[in-house]
Amino acid sequence: MEIAALVITIIWIIIGTSRMKWHPFLVLLIAAFALALAVGTSALDALLLINEGFGKTMTRIGLIILLGAMLGEILEKGGATEIIALHIVKMLKKLPTTYAMSLIGYVVAIPVFCDAAFILLSPLTKSLSKNARVNGKALTVALSTGLFAPHVLIPPTPGPLAAAATLGLNELGMLIIAGGVLSLALVLAGGWFATRMNKQLSSTEAIENIEMPVVLGGFWKAILPLLLPLILIAGGTSFKDAQGPIQLWITTLSKPEAALAIGVVVALLISGNEMTKHSWIKNALHAGGPVLLITAMGGALGGVLKLIDVGAMLEGIAVPGAFALVLPFVISAVLKSAQGSSTVAIITTASMMLPMLGPLGLESELGKVWTILSLGVGAMTVSHANDSYFWIVSEMGGLSTEEAFKYHTRATALQGALGLVLVVLSGWLVL
Questions:
Q1: Contact 146, 190 (CB under 8 A)
Q2: What is the CA 411 to chain-centroid distance, rounded?
Q3: What's the Cα-to-Cα distance from 72 to each of 8, 16, 60, 184, 336, rounded to whole Å?
Q4: Residues 135, 141, 144, CA angle at the centre, nearest 5°?
Q5: For the chain, what are the domain ranges?
Q6: Of 47, 263, 273, 402, which one has the fewest beta carbons inside 10 Å?
Q7: Which residues contact 268 (CB under 8 A, 6 or more apart)?
């Protein structure tokens, strides 16, 4: 009965979000309530359980998501992302332009949503195409894939942050490092795909004579609000064994809430008069609010899923070592391909994986990190017509629908498949 209820819940989430086009918050709420009733909980207890899970998740992740959205908004509206992108182009001028564009996406996507970052940087692909004589469509795919991998793998992007909170991961710095390395490999794979694509469409040359627009501030000044929180969070993991009064400071400043708050303050100080108006707060809440609600409701669903004896369901099923990591990938990839949103796929899969960590042998901190990496790469497999990012790439990048399917969708499929192989192989080494 419980297995049938769980399968029906997954089917409902897919149909509700993809076919019926209902908001994921409402779909997850209905799923959590119906699943609680199906496993024998009374209606009143189901409501109390959902409310408890929602509140706990909101407490754990709410401030982090909102601060991350604020940081991204300030960097985007203050022009820091443009400065970062243009200076990376200059620094990587010896590389083929496609790889340079992919690496720009890698850096910019960490604080800024990939769709907003693509809209912001798409004019740069046109400029580079003219100056370096590279096919603009190849640069579009290089940028889209470069933005996509960090979006699903590196905090403080909301998806992996929410997954870390849902699974109770304490070593967030470990996820930043592992996610950064894995996403870099996938970004380079996207650059390789775009380079091959460019060879089919034109010829690739190194970047030459790119006109840099006049912008306020330098590269390190622009990137400091992004680097500082990442260094603080990762530093908390690196120096966790420190002794004495410094331990309290390291523990405090490495908390994601504190690190992101420092990043926001530094970004505001650097932006000067550019962000004196309060519209940026409204925009940040508009971007982060829906993610926060979906995340909290995903936590409520995870609380209900704890009622199911997953250990008994998996009893007798032998999953050899790191191959257990295939399960979160498959669930996330099915949800992503069916309903389109990577963030929804990540949050929902994390909720479903929570009660399975113990039976699958993934309850350690490393196990949780690799579970998040697995469901993260699943959430980028694949981007197609039901994904808003697909249409942004198509419309803003100058690709026809057929070309978007041919290039962007295939590139995200390549990244997802490679990501699964890398996660399983690395998991076999570290778990």
A1: yes
A2: 17
A3: 37, 30, 20, 20, 24
A4: 140
A5: 2-430
A6: 273
A7: 74, 275
DSSP percent split of the chain into helix, strand, coil, nearest 5: 80, 0, 20
Distance CA(313)–CA(110), nearest Å, equals 38
As a residue count, the chain comes to 431
First to last CA, the chain: 33
Asked whether the CA dihedral 378, 185, 70, 275 is positive or negative, the reply is: negative
Cα–Cα distance, 175 to 181 (Å, whole number): 10
Q: Is 96 helix (H, G, I), strand (E, B) or coil?
A: strand
Query: Chain centroid to CA 51: how far?
Result: 26
pTM: 0.75
Token pair recorded at residue 160: 């992996």
Looking at per-residue pLDDT, the higher value among 306 and 297 belongs to 297
Give residue 135's Cα distance to chain centre.
Answer: 28
Residue 310 tokens read as 């997953």
Q: Is 81 helix (H, G, I), strand (E, B) or coil?
A: helix
240 residue type, one letter: K
Structural contact between residues 299 and 54, judged by C-beta atoms closer than 8 angstroms: yes
Judge contact between 149 and 187, C-beta under 8 A: yes
Those residues whose C-beta lies under 8 Å from the C-beta of residue 408, and which sit 6 or more positions away, are 140, 141, 144, 145, 383, 390, 393, 394, 399
- pLDDT-derived band at 205 (thresholds 50, 70, 90) equals very low
Which residues have a Cβ under 8 Å from the Cβ of 312 and sit 6 or more positions away?
A: none
